[in-house]
Amino acid sequence: MSQITIDTIQRTVSENNKILRKNGQVPCIMYGEFLENSIPIKIKSSELIKLLRDNSKGSIIKLSVNDTIKNCVVKNVQKDSVTGELLHVDFQCVNENEIIKMKIPVNYSGLNNLQLNRLVLDTFLSEIEMQGNVEKIPESIKIDVSQMNFDDKIFAKDIELPEEIKLITEPDTLLAVVNGFNQGEEN
Question: Which residues form the Large ribosomal subunit protein bL25 beta domain (predicted)?
Answer without folding.
Answer: 100-179
